[in-house]
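User: Just a sanity check before I run the rest of the batch. Below are the structure tokens for the first item. I only need the designed sequence back.
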């Protein structure tokens, strides 16, 4: 198949690129600037440089493709990332329909749409999904919580916190329940979706084998790395204050950290069994996913 891969230089996109090439697919990669294009130039792919909000750029990228992976987000961009995400999604859905794209596969955030106080980040992810699924080209929206892999932003934050803080002040939001997914499992869901029949627009919630709090994830990482850490629960660290503290401890920007932490107040676990019915995948546990990520890091 000829496949458009957006976000190919990101954590998920770069792994997916290698997997799709190994399966013999022909890839078109949309790069937002010359720096991203240069990073992709070592791969046997067609690279198109430009803004996904530009009709001519997007038409050129989609034209002739059978399917597309939508891995675009504007969380680190200047201005209102929600407006950027909405504009790109509307453009993509329209042109995908005009070019008769057979399927769109999108990775969203795992959240309960009925939650009254969704974070701006999760609300934006769900809005993008609704836009893509309302287009003429059918779209599967995978909803996932924290992705555990060596280079994922959320897992890098876990590593930095555990290695740099012998004493951790643990705010209440670290007790929020989530259902982390191993990066390798996410890639398998994305690959299997390319051959799923029949293919129609729908939401598929995906998660690992078990649920855990963010405190559990920190403790599991520390245990596997033999790190002795003291964790002290505190009631006064809000997500906003925590994001400023996080920016000092980790290399992530304060803005990305704030937007990610803001979403941690919402429980994120799988409520539907559609993934087990549609896909032949046995997800890994939190402990297994962390062990894999540590092994990848040591190999690097």
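Assistant: Here's the designed sequence for the first item:
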């Amino acid at each position: 198949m000829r496949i458009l891969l957006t976000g190919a230089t990101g954590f998920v996109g770069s792994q997916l690129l290698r997997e799709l090439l190994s399966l013999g697919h022909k890839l078109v990669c949309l790069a937002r600037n010359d720096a991203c294009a240069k990073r992709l130039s070592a791969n046997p792919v067609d690279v198109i440089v430009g803004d996904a909000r530009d009709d001519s750029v997007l038409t050129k990228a989609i034209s002739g493709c059978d399917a597309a992976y939508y891995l675009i987000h504007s969380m680190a961009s200047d201005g209102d990332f929600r407006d950027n995400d909405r504009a790109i999604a509307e453009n993509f859905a329209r042109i995908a329909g005009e070019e008769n794209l057979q399927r769109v596969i999108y990775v969203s955030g795992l959240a309960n749409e009925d939650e009254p106080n969704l974070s701006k980040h999760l609300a934006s992810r769900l809005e993008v999904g609704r836009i893509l699924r309302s287009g003429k080209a059918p779209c599967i929206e995978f909803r996932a919580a924290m992705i555990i892999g060596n280079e994922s932003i959320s897992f890098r934050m876990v590593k930095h916190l555990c290695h740099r803080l012998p004493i951790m002040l643990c705010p209440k939001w670290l007790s929020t329940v989530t259902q982390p997914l191993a990066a390798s499992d996410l890639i398998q869901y994305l690959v299997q979706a390319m051959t799923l029949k029949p293919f129609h627009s729908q939401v598929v919630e995906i998660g690992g084998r078990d649920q855990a709090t963010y405190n559990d994830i920190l403790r599991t990482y520390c245990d596997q790395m033999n790190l002795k850490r003291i964790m002290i629960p505190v009631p006064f660290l809000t997500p906003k204050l925590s994001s400023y503290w996080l920016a000092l401890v980790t290399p992530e920007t304060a803005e990305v950290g704030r937007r990610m932490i803001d979403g941690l107040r919402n429980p994120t676990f799988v409520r539907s069994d559609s993934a087990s019915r549609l896909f032949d995948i046995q997800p890994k546990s939190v402990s297994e996913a962390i062990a894999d990520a540590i092994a990848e890091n040591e190999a690097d």
